[in-house]
User: Fold this.
Amino acid sequence: MTNAPMIALQDATKKYDEGPPALAGVTLSVAAGECVAILGHSGSGKSTLLNLIAGLDKPSSGTVTVDGTRVDQLGEAGSAKYRRASIGLVFQFFNLLDDLTVLDNVMVPAQLAGMGKAEAKRRAVELLGSLDIDRHAKAYPQRLSGGQRQRVAVARALMNRPALLLADEPTGALDSSSAEDVRRLLLDLNAEGQTILLVTHDIQLAADTARRTIELVDGAVERDVVNHGSGAGPAARTPLTRPAGEAR
Amino acid sequence: MTLRKPPMPRRLFEVGVHAVARLLPAASPSALGKVVRSGVGRRRLQSLVMALTTFATVTTAMLSLGLLTAVQAPFEHAFGARNGAHLAIQFSSSKVTAAQAAATAHAAGVTEAAGPYPIAAALDTTIGTDCAERAGSDNGPITVSTRPDLGSTSGMDQLALTRGHWPTGPGEIALPSQDFAADCFGDSVVFSSLPGKPSFKVVGFADSVTNSATGFLTADGFARLTAAGAKSDEQMLYRFAKAGTNADIATDKQAVAAAVPAGAVESGQSYLIAEQQATGNAKAYVPFLIGFGILGLFMSVLIISIVVSGAVASGIRRIGILKSLGFTPAQVARAYTAQAMIPATLGLVLGTVFGNLLAVPILGGATQQLGAAGAASATIPLWVSAVVPLGTLLIVGVTALIPALRAGRMPTVRALVVGRAPKAGGGQRAQRLASRLPLPRAMSLGLAQPFARPARTVLVGAAVLFGVVSVTFAVGLETGFNRYLDASTSGFNVASEFVEPTADVGVPWGRYGPNDPRDPHLDADKVAAALAEIEGTKAAFGWGDSGATMVGAPPGGETPEVFTTTGDFSWTGMELLSGRWYSAPGEAVVGDKLASAVGIHVGDDLTVVQQNKQLPLKVVGINFDTNVGDYTVMTDAATFTAAGLTPHIDQFNVELASNVNGAEWSTSAAAALTPLNASVQPNSDGGKNIVVLTMGALVATLTLMMMAVAALGVLSTVVQDTRERAHDLGIFKALGMTPKQTIAMVLTSVSLTGLVAGLIGVPLGVAVEKATLTPMGNAIGRHLPPSVTHTYTAGLLIPLLAGGIVIALLGALLPAGWAARTRTATALRTE
Assistant:
């Protein structure tokens, strides 16, 4: 592990047109290997924060540094390459590509990054196996249950061994059983050393999954607390993740 | 999804749209008007494309139909009003009697006949000495006739007097205004080739609509000519039950000829020849304008289908909301139809104006041949300016109505629930197959996309297809035009240096007619010998207008010229359409235009007359003639000499050896030629054919327009596709797809469609060109040779085959850029 935080936001502000900022001078840091939940009501700035960290959007002012990269200074192509290398994204509605098989969906990030087809396939099969959905490799996403689809989305997010996994309401579209399934998966990943930033409005999910909870209200950090007794154990190298802090 | 809006001349377009929108039926409630206007406003790009396609369609349709009617109308009107003759036949009086000629009125197919009238064909004339300005000038050959009542306003082929009065005595004559100098009106014309050179005072300008004769005398006056030695024949005029085509006329002529002894028919003048002479080159524009017009119409229908269907497909939620607010199905259908009609109306108004404006310079050329009466009516008729746009509007309306009705019938609940265009269900197999290709993943993803929406792919392909057809067609036409221009600079125009009589230097071409005694000629033998002696002369041949006329040539319009040549001209590139070049005395080659007009074939006999002396010639070849005259006969000077006629050699064309300096050669030639009253003139390469150049420019303009429309059609479809796939794009970008990869994916998604459209479009374009170029030649009375019509070489076809991809990529480039710049976070929120 290194001392540098995995995520560091310094006075990050995001304004859209006129009106109050979506994010107002947020300063926070997340260490490698942490699992942090961002809590807040609708419109509190959770998704904006996640977008800034993922390089999907840029702050109006302030800085965003992830895994040593000044994300706010990246251009379009730089942002794309940054996401390939450092970020895995899991969405509430899975965002799988309906006309690609499960296997192809999982392989896409690696192939976009230039990985050879054979190697990408090997890695994807390995991931699907680890997540226990390898039997659906040739199926199309529409034929899977919500929980299965979210597992596929997680597999895809982990394809390039990202330093940071960003999960935006990952259980929001799932029934309670599937939600629990995904929660355990996130816990396991974090236990294996995967840094996770979990955006949710579900206090219970945050408490059960993350070691630390940051609550946003009107775009500002209202609370930043550590949840004792929850979260994952020490980091270990597995097929799913790279150990926290490992240089790429 | 908020794609960046494309740049465009927004203000001008919006002003036009709002102006047209205000003209919507008053029945449209203001709410409906607002829906329509906002729909047009939201789809500015697609609206612009629709406006542009209808503009192109209406412009070409206006031009083609307008030209056809404007050029044709004066002749047709005159032909109908004056009960013109379909065919005028001249019978040799040595083989038929007047009664026998009259009896042909009962030949098969004849519905009406007139005559026989005495006629004397192709008599050389000069202007009399009483016209001081032009005394003695060559006035060309005139075919003279007399009728019992020259000014009759009933019966067939009524003659029209435009100035003066009809001849009333034996010393008076009436001529067509174009056959005698206006400033010599009232002075005399002299029949210079007849013994005694009888002269007549020109007291009237008059003509026959089909040029059945070009000089009109009283019976007494005609008797003066025959007394002076003019050969008098019998002329009969006919109208037939079937006379619409050259083939019909040929059949009719055969029927008449069968009713008289063999060889009695000396010549026949078809009204189609007169019509062609009257309409001139303007009709040559019509075939390719019709071609572009049809392509434009298809393109309009296609683009409007694409845009309105797309608007309906992507606006399902909007339709649901409108219906939930109380819009009836009819109102919804009207709203979506009007969204196409507004830009289309704008396009067709502009197209109507532009078509009329563009017709002015094109009709300008035609009016010269139509004369003053034609010039007055040579504008696009008002009914064309009404029918073409209204017809286009109707087609556009029906095209837009079909998908609009679908929108109107859509159940409200379904529209609200579905909320957006249905996601692509197909294409999974294509994606699987594409993923196996050894291509970068972004490209293989793009390659499979067309299969997800096959209907839309067909529309994109059709837009590219029409673009490729247009380009292939236009490139073929342009190449044909250029080859025609090249051919027109062959033959008598080819030379390094010209040698002409010293007395002719600086004298305008044709100032003196070939029979004018002041027209100087070269001593052919001596000049040829001198040229052969000059160092650096590679080849030389001499030629000139003999002043002879052809018996049986159409009497009006262009006068046939009989050229005599000496020496080898095989190096000039003159091209034979059939037969061979003359190689023995008595043989001749006829230009294709004259051969078509008179119906001459290889192996036929023809007779030329010089100074009232007849010379029979055997036709051994038909050549593609773009030389000095439009109606030409060529024969060797030796043929004239052997028959006791005088060949005229007015010019030598000299080809220099490749290493010879023209100026130095001229200097040494001058010493040898000056004693022979001959001078050297450099070849300044005559001007290009302005009609062909105008056509070329017009074709290029229309092609660019069609290409732009095709590319815009692709653009419109890809924009819509990109909008609908915005969410998927967001996913790809979230997964790390770079802008370059995004562009590559979008461009690849149209390239296969473009390739296929190109492969289909090129042969279609070739077929359209083949169906157009030959009729264009026919419109000006030409049989184009293979060197002009065989335009598509491998070097031309290969890039054309790639044209489909180029058009598709051009059309997809902008939306690809917009897709690449789309904000990922926004795209991901798009549903």
Notes: Confidence is low (pLDDT under 50) at residues 232-238 of chain A. Chain A touches chain B through 30 residues (CB under 8 Å). The first strand of chain A starts at residue 7 and ends at 14.
